[in-house]
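Hi everyone, sorry if this is the wrong subforum. Our group has a chain we'd like a structural model of before ordering constructs, and none of us has done structure prediction before. Sequence below.
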Amino acid sequence: MTCFDRSDLGLLLLRLGTGGVLAAHGAQKLFGWFGGAGLEGTGQFMESVGYAPGKASATAAGLAEAGGGTLLALGLATPAAGAAAAGAMVGAAAVHAPNGFFAQSGGYEYAATLALLGTGLAVTGPGRLSLDHRLGHAVNRGWMVPVALGVTAAGTAVVVGARNKRLRRAAQGEQEMLFEE
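Answer:
Right subforum, don't worry. Here is the predicted structure as tokens:
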């Protein structure tokens, strides 16, 4: 069947919108485009919110967003692209979580929405209007979905967990030694 149906068009629109936003967000971090701070400024910010080392964290987040977003928009390697985008956005949501849900209060609403869109596209697939479809789904196999999401979830849990531990330690301050050895 060569005719595209409305679900193919809908998936294309979701991929282009979500991927475009994520790619632009990553370009802010990596290159300072669209009013972003670039790697130096974003690295300093990342360090200030507990992601260390800051510049490496900014690079990883920028690559996950820009790379994952671009691949989502193209509909290429959709499981890995969606998982990478979701992982980056879960890391962002962790920063905003203390402010509650709604974005108007600095909450995690926006990051959570992008994470869910990335995850949903990874699970659903790109549709027929995609490079994955054109290439015979060589990098979009069914088994790749749980692998990509599982690996990303584990990695994100480690990174966010290390950040939370770092923040707890900073909040408690360095405890003084009671006795010298």
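For your construct planning: The two ends are 78 Å apart (CA to CA). The chain is about 70% helix and 0% strand.
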